[in-house]
Amino acid sequence: MSGPRHYCGVVGINAGHNVVADLQKALMIIQHRGQDSAGVSVFDGNVINTVKDAGLVQIALPKERIENIQGQVGIGHVRYATTGGKGAMNAQPMTMTTVFGMIALAHNGDLTNYQKLKTVYMGQGAVFQTDSDTELIINLLSRRMGQDQDPVKAIKAVMSEIDGAYALALMINGRLFGIRDPLGIRPLIIGKLDDGYMICSESSAVYSLGGEIVRDVMPGEVVEITQDSFKSYAPTTRCAYAHCFFEWVYFARPDSIIDGCEVYNVRKNIGRVLAREHPADVDLVMPIPDSGRAHAIGFSIESGIPYEEGFMKNRFADRTFIMPDQATREKAVSNKMIPIKSTVDGKRILIIDDSIVRGTTLKKLVHMLRDAGAKEVHVRVGSPPIIAPCFYGIDMKNREQFIANKHTVDEIREIIGADSLGYISIEGVIEAIGLSGSDLCLACVNAKYPTKIEGEEHRYQTRLTDLK
Amino acid sequence: MSGPRHYCGVVGINAGHNVVADLQKALMIIQHRGQDSAGVSVFDGNVINTVKDAGLVQIALPKERIENIQGQVGIGHVRYATTGGKGAMNAQPMTMTTVFGMIALAHNGDLTNYQKLKTVYMGQGAVFQTDSDTELIINLLSRRMGQDQDPVKAIKAVMSEIDGAYALALMINGRLFGIRDPLGIRPLIIGKLDDGYMICSESSAVYSLGGEIVRDVMPGEVVEITQDSFKSYAPTTRCAYAHCFFEWVYFARPDSIIDGCEVYNVRKNIGRVLAREHPADVDLVMPIPDSGRAHAIGFSIESGIPYEEGFMKNRFADRTFIMPDQATREKAVSNKMIPIKSTVDGKRILIIDDSIVRGTTLKKLVHMLRDAGAKEVHVRVGSPPIIAPCFYGIDMKNREQFIANKHTVDEIREIIGADSLGYISIEGVIEAIGLSGSDLCLACVNAKYPTKIEGEEHRYQTRLTDLK
Amino acid sequence: MSGPRHYCGVVGINAGHNVVADLQKALMIIQHRGQDSAGVSVFDGNVINTVKDAGLVQIALPKERIENIQGQVGIGHVRYATTGGKGAMNAQPMTMTTVFGMIALAHNGDLTNYQKLKTVYMGQGAVFQTDSDTELIINLLSRRMGQDQDPVKAIKAVMSEIDGAYALALMINGRLFGIRDPLGIRPLIIGKLDDGYMICSESSAVYSLGGEIVRDVMPGEVVEITQDSFKSYAPTTRCAYAHCFFEWVYFARPDSIIDGCEVYNVRKNIGRVLAREHPADVDLVMPIPDSGRAHAIGFSIESGIPYEEGFMKNRFADRTFIMPDQATREKAVSNKMIPIKSTVDGKRILIIDDSIVRGTTLKKLVHMLRDAGAKEVHVRVGSPPIIAPCFYGIDMKNREQFIANKHTVDEIREIIGADSLGYISIEGVIEAIGLSGSDLCLACVNAKYPTKIEGEEHRYQTRLTDLK
Amino acid sequence: MSGPRHYCGVVGINAGHNVVADLQKALMIIQHRGQDSAGVSVFDGNVINTVKDAGLVQIALPKERIENIQGQVGIGHVRYATTGGKGAMNAQPMTMTTVFGMIALAHNGDLTNYQKLKTVYMGQGAVFQTDSDTELIINLLSRRMGQDQDPVKAIKAVMSEIDGAYALALMINGRLFGIRDPLGIRPLIIGKLDDGYMICSESSAVYSLGGEIVRDVMPGEVVEITQDSFKSYAPTTRCAYAHCFFEWVYFARPDSIIDGCEVYNVRKNIGRVLAREHPADVDLVMPIPDSGRAHAIGFSIESGIPYEEGFMKNRFADRTFIMPDQATREKAVSNKMIPIKSTVDGKRILIIDDSIVRGTTLKKLVHMLRDAGAKEVHVRVGSPPIIAPCFYGIDMKNREQFIANKHTVDEIREIIGADSLGYISIEGVIEAIGLSGSDLCLACVNAKYPTKIEGEEHRYQTRLTDLK
Fold first, then answer.
1. How many CB pairs below 8 A link C and D?
2. With C429 labelled, which of B71, C456, D378, D446 sits at a CA distance of 20 to 30 A?
């Protein structure tokens, strides 16, 4: 609810039929990963054609434009605009014409050495039309392919240059590749369709197309997706995973399975862990719709405290989500969430939110519950205190914005006006996910970055891509 | 979810400040009662000014137009377009200039003798620009006021002419009235604000403006709303209530209290009753989001069967709600609801829907659950089988559309593909609401109409408005 | 150019084919008479269906909406919004349902006793949804038809009640009537098509549909237009014409023939007369595009002074025409008209404008010519000084706006910065038109109104409609 | 009227104030050179900011976006979309970030060796996001600047690589350059403003900003525009001019002065020449509005035959101009032009069109005149028969489309239905312009190309840029 925003989602399909409608459907399924622009690129046997524009999938990819393109291989992208603007100009996939043909790229993530590489490369005569690291990746790729005609070799070479988080759907003419960064920070999964194969940021899109999950793309792996199969070009050695733990806590759809762990289950587990770590003597546990329901069910099951729907969410105010600035978003909260008086009045209530960035939304909700007659309001939070910026594709780059950086838990409790406040521990959230803590990126809650970040403590002193 | 659609919602405010923003906010709260057009009319001390247009409140009442009008007395309306079109032309409030000044009217309901009265009145020279019974009511009112200058007498006289369901917010120049039909079929409630009073279709709008509920407008009552108080012109005698039971089952917001019964509680009770009337040996009970959650929680509490969220709803597909035709709506279901595989797979599942009109949506959902691995799918329905049309303001006028009219419960079960199917009984739903069955309109489930309807069985042989 | 704005244009067609496209085409031809809204109503054999909206014909009547209606009888309307707004709500034709069926009306003109009649009629119980005299006419008509079933008698009765200027296209179910006020102030002409007949404000629309002009509707005449012919219900006596002289000077299209006189010819004659009344020793005569060309050609022919195009008009700035307020319009002039330096530089120039209301635009043009090097700038005006308001359908109701009311010709010359200024005389413009002066309405230039206007001098002391 | 379409227009300003509004105004003045997209780029002292979008200047550069950028140096562009689409993506100026800072480029023309250069350069690793030669020029420029930091040297180096027609407004960070191809095919002029200097495709824009013409940019010249002056980097030697003669005949505004010759005067001269080359015994000479007026005035003066406006042009149908395809445009003609019957009826008429590409529009006009009663219709054409494609920036690349390629003049006369048809001779049009024929590009009428074109006869066997 009050959590951070995400950057992007990608999809790529190679099948025995025109895949445009499938790409569109998949993008609607991962629409939560970006609402500012959407686009698809398909290879028609000759060239790559692209339709992309600002807005939700339904707006950006209207029937009359989508009908004009077709192809059995294609990629798609939904984008959350950070700086720069939401315009059509920044929509992806980005396409380029090279001596080897056309390249289309859809990118989810953030390169940490983007500025450095860009400067170096510009010094060699390269020019850039955008501020997007996607454009840099295509430039690097094109240069590498000039040195070695083999796309896979070129991709590997580019991967040895770039740092950070990236999940890529890449098309070189009619060849489709899925690429995941060496630590697997951003998710990417392989699916099998009736007459083809696909890659996507989230597994739900695979199901929505009637397909089956094959497996996650491995960290550092390049997979070439064909109509009949897929071919893996894995890293020769590996020594580390760093899956973003926030995908499970907040970003991904509940029905997605990421690196083997289903999001809905993880969220229920978080509720269970919270019930053990921060029990409370309350009358009922309430979710903050829609993102907090699984957490609350888990807490209810573990604690035996009844689960109730105590907030009425106004679905017509849901446009809030696409309101650009924080101020507008917060102002919209009071129209969006209304307590159900009879559920709340005279009760001791516990609510669970997925995370706290600034705390402003939560403060409003607590006050609304009190106004509606709640005797006590207890807050539990499904992620540990956020204290450090994310450089891997999440829109929380500014340390100043984190309330947990400036205040103790008790101070935060007082600011938001709760009777008690409990964050899940780092150990707790690791347990809830069920993977090893060393396989997760927890940088935003423990300030230890999995890749080298100038001026920050990082887990690995060498560039990860060197670790072969 | 698969239930019928509603017509309209109304609001009226008289307060010590410019009420335009309050009207707008209240309309956003009752937006679920109509998404096709919205409008507000305010009296500026001299004339009534109106802003209205097609679309959601945010679209129809944009800042730049709303800023141009002001007044301390005003009414508002949201509308669900049935036949005729969604255009700006049909938006309410409807306003007219008469010899007594300006009249503005916002109407929720349906007059059952509209065509008859219109024909009679046209025979006397009246002309009509629309097919709306709202226009007829204003015409009748104007004529009555010509005979007797007193607005209340005129209103009463009109009420003795018209039959059917109506909840009206009426402004005659700067005087504001709330009017409810003699059986109280459609809801209307009085609220007290900091510096004024209001009427509205649903109590949640009162809370959203920081006010307190005073009481429901009584069946057949006219209330004049002033800044300091309200004055009641009650019917001298009364002998019947006929509150639409569907308001609790499906239409109204969970957080609204209608005729003393909170909607959320009624829905939980429905779940409890269903658990007793149609128990099931299943692993978990799942709501159909968003409307079915309270039902499912009630079933879970009564039965002890765990409550789980097993459907993921795509909020970006929520535009479905404003899709005009049935076909488009149904096609959109599969993008909108996706089962969470881990919750569903291998389980015996019970889902609760609020009602079944055609059954097509439910059929899709059952199949989706089976595809996701559900071992058994049991369906419970929060209203008795719908078998008769509604003539009181709900968009289900055609007997042919009701699956329960053509099939037995077991046939319906087979059609939708469920392992078991249980409708709540008429007695059960009466118990869940907590009012006397004779005080409810249950015509759509028992075919006994509270007012005289040509060709239908009706509870009262004389016109109800004669029952003084 | 700097002249007043017009109200409306009407059309009606009865033919052996679906007339929707013809109505649309005719409205495009008379689009200059109103750009704020457009609409068509057609009778499909059963009911009258209407499509109307704000905007130019192309915008208001889009293909997808127009395709949904059809009929062999129909009317259309283009409207210039004065007060009140340009919204879809005020678009015409206006339609009403009465006991006799459906009525649709398209109106060009202004009733001078509108407020009086409205008040009287409201006293009898009538209600009004708009501030439009069109609504009043339909109400009166409906009432009269209640007394006497014959439409023609009812129309005649209404004509005996209303005063002012009106040209009407009226449909009563499938019967089509053309009606012109008793003085013939606004134009209305009958045309013959291949398989039908039509009426229209301007003859050019008849030609554009491949038809032939039959004759003008006579003052006070009602014509019923059928597929095979038309039937005239003429006034039994008549004693006066008062055709608005401004239709020839400015409003109508050059290619239209109004009451026997072709507009283009009249305008050339005006130029000739001006050359005689106000000769000038100049190097060249220049039109102000586009409206002044015929005037300038006439002046050139009569005087022997060369005609040159010295203003370049920016067609992309032509949207000026649909800019609502005077200020915006004036500001736009300098982008819209640019002198051609080579034509103008060092020359003594004479320009002709059709009329002067405020004089602001003309002042700008004179200055622009001087800036471009003109040695002298002489101005001739194609209408006498405008000194009195129009109550017959032209948007110049406020005496204060007329520069000729506050200043002598020489003062005006100084204000606009011209070397000489000559208005055509009243006699001159009468000569140019070629009709008798007593058959023209010259009220705006001689302040003598053809109908009774409270507080104004009028030519006829009794109501004209009484003059039988 | 029936002539070819143009590509683009450019402007660049360096002045002592924020130039955004001036750029916008200048673009509106040259809007006729491209209506599909518009854009401006300004340097704010630090970076270059750009606003550009599809549509007319008024649409593409709305107030709210224009207000957000500012700078004292800037360039602008209007674009006519050929293939590829009209979308925002193809709007100019195009901007790039290089190691030397930001580059913005606005381009009017066509590179004849674009594909060849692009292929070569891609072979060296360059990638291209568009099919636009503008992108190629920036790439070349960036590479050259990497070799030699001096912008002027880099520009000169690029000019030695590229062939064809180009008039460029170029910004490298805050430095502004105007560049014209070595033959001066496309126009570009230098103007002096109150507090700055500018370059523009047409001189009218200079006047519209209150400035004075300084001189045309010379063929092959690079000028750097500063606030106080401009600095010329002329080619060391030159041997040829090849100004596109069509700029005078059809493209440019009448009030523009190109390479010393005013367009309006040239067009009058064309009329005079036609009167001598192809005299006719007719009653009147009529222009085809709006482009043909000057031609007709010239013909009238030379021949003594009266000039009349015989076509009424519907300004509301003027959107035709922005209709994309030929078919739609032709269909729109009949709504757009209507003969004035009284002028035409019974007369022998001569009309002058600027050029004939396909002849379809002209055929319609001739028929319309006959239908309106013209006894004879004679056609004169202001350019010689078009027989060869243009490779220098005009949208007539397909030889098949030219009627004069397939038919003799007499056949064309018969096809269009005229009584006589006369094209101006090549010598005649040269005389009318007043420059030497060897200084003009007449390739589309004599098939002799000024630069080397594969498979075509060309005047110069070596690359022109080698001729130093």
1. 111
2. C456
pLDDT digits (tens, 9 = 90+) for C303-315: 999 999 888 887 6
The span from the CA of A59 to the CA of B42, in Å, is: 35
Residues forming CATH 3.60.20.10 domain(s) in chain B: 8-237
Contact criterion met (CB < 8 Å) for A207 and B338: yes
Q: What is the CATH number of domain B261-446?
A: 3.40.50.2020
Rounded to an integer, what distance in angstroms lies between the CA atom of residue C171 and that of residue C11?
11
pTM above 0.80, yes or no: yes
Question: Using the beta-carbon criterion (under 8 Å), do C56 and D316 form an inter-chain contact?
Answer: yes
pLDDT for residue A438 is more than 60: yes
Shortest Cα distance, chain B CAs vs residue A202, angstroms: 13
Alpha-helical regions (H) of C35-177: 57-60, 63-66, 114-123, 133-147, 151-159
Instruction: Give pLDDT, residue C99.
Output: 84
Q: Tell me the DSSP string of D179-239.
A: EE-TT--S--EEEEETTEEEEESSHHHHHHTT-EEEEEPPTT-EEEE-SS-EEEE--S---
Which residue is it, tokens 């057009």? B37
pLDDT at A407 over 90: yes
Side chain identity at B249, as an amino acid letter? Answer: V
* List of chain B residues with pLDDT < 50: 1-2, 84, 318-331, 464, 466-468
**Cβ distance D449 to D389 under 8 Å?**
no
Long-range contacts of A68-71 (CB under 8 A, 24+ apart): A69/A20, A69/A40, A69/A42, A69/A44, A70/A18, A70/A20, A70/A42, A70/A44, A71/A18, A71/A19, A71/A20, A71/A42, A71/A43, A71/A44, A71/A45, A71/A174
Range(s) of chain A covered by CATH 3.60.20.10: 8-239
Nearest-CA distance D226 → chain C (Å)? 26
CATH class of domain segment(s) A8-239 = alpha beta
List, in sequence order, the alpha helices (H) in A179-325: 203-208, 246, 263-277, 293-303
Q: ipTM surpassing 0.95, yes or no?
A: no
CATH of region B8-237, choose from 3.60.20.10, 3.30.700.20, 3.40.50.10490, 3.20.20.60: 3.60.20.10
pLDDT per position as a tens digit, D417-449: 999 999 999 999 999 999 999 999 999 999 999
pLDDT confidence of residue C325: 44
- Residue C142 to residue B128, Cβ atoms within 8 A: no
Q: Which of D89, D99, D126 sits opposite A122 (nearest CB)?
A: D99
At D310-359, the pLDDT tens digits run 888 876 664 433 333 444 444 455 567 888 888 899 999 999 999 998 89
- Give the pLDDT confidence score for residue A463 in this predicted structure: 53
Distance CA B359, CA B3 (A): 9
pLDDT category at A342 given cuts 50, 70, 90 is confident
Q: How far apart are CA D454 and CA D116, in angstroms?
A: 12
* Distance from C-alpha of B189 to C-alpha of B262, rounded to nearest angstrom: 13
Q: How far apart are CA C119 and CA C121, in angstroms?
A: 5
Closest by Cα among A157, A160, A105 to A130: A105
Per-residue pLDDT band for D274 (boundaries 50, 70, 90) equals very high
- Catalytic positions of A, please? 8
Sheet holding B73-79, edge to edge: B48-54, B37-43, B73-79, B8-15, B196-200, B189-193, B212-216
Number of Cβ pairs < 8 A linking chain A and chain D: 66
Which ranges in chain C are annotated with CATH 3.40.50.2020?
261-446
Catalytic residue among C8, C200, C244, C390: C8
Assign 3-state DSSP to chain D and report helix, strand, coil percentages, each to 5.
35, 25, 40
Buried b / exposed e over B289-320, threshold 16 CB at 10 Å, is bbbbbbbbbbbbbbbebebbbbbbbbbbbeee
